[in-house]
Each structure stands twice: as C-alpha cells, then as structure tokens.
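Hi support team,

I've been running sequence recovery on a batch of backbones for a student project. Most finish fine, but this one hangs at about 90% for roughly twenty minutes before it completes. I'm not sure whether the input is malformed or the queue is just slow. I've pasted the structure tokens below so you can try to reproduce it. Let me know if you need the job ID as well.

Thanks,
M.K.
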C-alpha cells in the first residue's frame, strides 16, 4: 500500500483556494455526520439535496453540478480523506501555476464535466469530489510531467520514497479504466475518466494558446524540446555523413600540410592531428586538437577534418570546444557547402548550452536563406524566435 504525501515542486504562493475547498468539504462532511447521529431521514434528505442525478439535471437543477462535489457519505471517511489528500497534492501545485481564481474555475468546471459524464452513463446519483480531483490530476500531468511524488510505502518495510508522478497517475487511470469496463461497487468510474480527460485537454489547450505561459516543466515544452533535439540530431548526422574523413583505396589521401606561415612546432602539432584523423584514431585526435588549440588557438585543420573534429567534440558533449571549432571552420571556410548547416549547428549550441542568443541570431539570419532542407529551415526559424530580437548594431 502507498500513500502520497507531497511533491517535489516548490510553490511560489500559498494554496489558499485549495485549502479553502478542502475546509468546505470537511465542513459539509461534519454537517452530514451530525445529521447522521440525529436520524437517518435527516442525513438522507441532506445527501439527496447535495447529490447529482440525471433527473435533477433534466429538471433544471444545475446547482447539483456544484453541490455534489462537496458531499461525502458520513459512513465513508476514507472517501473524503483520500479525495482531500490527492486534492492537496495535485491541486496546490496546479493552483500555484494557474492562480487562485483560475484554479477554482478549472477545478469546479472539471467536477461539473465529470458529473455530466456520470449522468450520461447511469441514472444512479453521485456525490464526492473525485471527478474534480481527477481533473486536477489530468492538469498536473500536463503542467508537471517530470514531477515526483513523495509516498509512504507500506509493504514488508515502511519507508518514504520519491517516485515519478506519471507512475501514480498512470496506475490510477488503469484502475479506473478496468473498473469502467468491469464495474465493481458504487464507484463513478466514468466521472473519474472524464475528469482526467478534461484536465489533461484543457491544461494542454491553455498552454498551447498561451493563456498559461509555457515553461521548462510542462508537457508541451518537453515535446517541443524533443522535436528540436530530433531535428538537431538529424543536422548533426547529416553533417557528419558529408564531412566524414575516409582513406579508402582509390580515394585521394589528404596530405600532411606544410605551411610556411606556421612555426615548426605549430606545423608539427597540426600534422600530428591530421595523421591521427587519417588513421581513424579519432579519440586521440580530439585530445590532440584541444592541446593544439591551447597552444595555437588560431590554427585550423583542412576543411573536412576541421568539421569532423568539431562534430565529434559536439557528440562527446564538449560544447565550448565544439563551438570554437565550428567558429574556426566558418572563419576559414565561409564558402563551404557545409557552411549553412554549420551555422545552424553553432547557433543551436549557443542558444541551448552556451547562453549566447545574440551571437546565434546573426548566424541564423545568414544561414536560413542558404539552407536547402525544409526541416533545417523550420529548426532555424524556431531557434531564431528563441534568440530574441535582433541585436543592436
């Protein structure tokens, strides 16, 4: 058995709305409990007035869509307890992101949608905040997909653990789906599933249209990042495939360069890097190239070799060294047929890893007209938006 007790999401504001809703639920439960001790007829009448049913909606009693969300049976305290626990965990995080008023509207509308879904599937009345809590859960998945939940675990050993929130949500959705397909007991499975769907879709819509500002935590940001990474990998792979240095039979060998403008030590070190690349000793070549840059920072390799080393440094995660190698390539070989893709690669590095959006802006503006691939142009335009306004001259 596991009991969730919190999340790892820091809050910027007090969850006043969530706390108020929890208190109201508890007060209504207390009233029902008092009525239950004073007579069955009284509590049945009270719960009937609070509940939602198809007949009441047909008669225009729309307030039932609100009142049923605050009613819990006085003989089932666990229903109230678990609803309020999940509301506190998921709702307080959602309130922090949406704001107090917007969160209340989001939650109550979710409860109403869940209630309508229940009345469409059965004539049985329904009470409880479960539909609204499921709506908050669905919204939480969109806004905090990477969040983790702190749980107390009761199984052989008792302990507190952190697990991904997506695991808990997926587990609950599976249970409700199975229950909906094979109903067991008086549980409003259709209301639960409708709540999940409402919360997920509305939260995604609010972020997509910009009503809720996207940030690095939400699902849409992660999806965009995934597309960007995929496009970025394609650019890297294509650059690598076109710049790969080969030394096969029948293919001319890139000679060791002797440049009269280089001092003997610089020429010797440069030629050593070139030989390593020709012999496919790429790991050694990268280290030797970095040493060459430390002692002679202006030294550049032949075109295909310079790009080969830059790509390999990037693949190895050495962002600063790769960016410098790409910059050297563009300075020495600005007319290369690989130059547009290299500008795109370098701009992506400057924006995503090196916090230099202004420098990336200029590179992207120059690269876009020369890029032949539509996917590369789309990536360049997305990066251009991220780089901000054009830097002042």
């Amino acid at each position: 058995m596991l009991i969730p007790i919190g999340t790892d999401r820091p809050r910027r504001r007090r969850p006043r709305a969530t706390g108020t809703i929890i208190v109201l639920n508890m007060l209504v439960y207390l009233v029902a409990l008092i009525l239950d001790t004073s007579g069955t007829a009284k509590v049945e009448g009270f719960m009937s007035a609070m509940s939602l049913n198809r007949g009441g909606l047909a008669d225009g009693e729309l307030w039932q869509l609100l009142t049923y969300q605050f009613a819990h049976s006085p003989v089932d305290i666990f229903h109230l307890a678990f609803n309020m626990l999940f509301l506190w965990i998921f709702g307080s995080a959602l309130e922090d992101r949406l704001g107090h008023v917007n969160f209340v509207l989001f939650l109550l509308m979710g409860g109403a949608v869940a209630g309508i879904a229940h009345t469409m599937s059965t004539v049985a009345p329904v009470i409880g905040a479960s539909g609204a809590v499921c709506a908050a859960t669905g919204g939480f998945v969109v806004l905090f997909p990477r969040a983790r939940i702190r749980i107390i675990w009761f199984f052989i050993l008792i302990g507190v653990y952190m697990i991904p929130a997506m695991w808990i949500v997926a587990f609950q959705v599976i249970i409700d789906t199975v229950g909906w397909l094979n109903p067991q007991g008086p549980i409003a499975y259709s209301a639960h599933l409708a709540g999940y769907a409402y919360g997920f879709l509305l939260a995604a819509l609010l972020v997509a249209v910009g009503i809720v500002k996207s940030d690095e935590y939400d699902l849409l940001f992660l999806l965009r990042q995934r597309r960007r990474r995929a496009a970025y990998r394609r650019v890297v792979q294509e650059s690598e495939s076109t710049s790969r240095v080969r030394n096969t039979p029948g293919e001319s060998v890139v000679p060791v360069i002797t440049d009269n403008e280089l001092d003997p030590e610089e020429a010797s070190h440069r030629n050593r890097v070139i030989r390593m690349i020709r012999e496919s000793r790429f790991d050694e070549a990268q280290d030797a190239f970095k040493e060459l840059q430390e002692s002679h920072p202006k030294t550049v390799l032949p075109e295909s070799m310079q790009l080969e080393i830059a790509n390999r440094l990037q693949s190895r995660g050495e962002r600063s060294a790769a960016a410098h190698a790409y910059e050297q390539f563009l300075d020495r070989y600005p007319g290369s047929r690989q130059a547009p893709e290299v500008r795109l690669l370098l701009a992506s590095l400057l924006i995503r890893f090196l916090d230099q959006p202004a420098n990336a802006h200029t590179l992207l503006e120059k690269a876009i007209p020369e890029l032949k691939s539509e996917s590369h142009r789309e990536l360049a335009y997305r990066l251009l938006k991220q780089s901000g306004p054009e830097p002042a001259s």
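--
Follow-up from support: It reproduced on our side and the slowdown came from queue contention, not your input. The first strand starts at residue 2 and ends at 7. No action needed from you.
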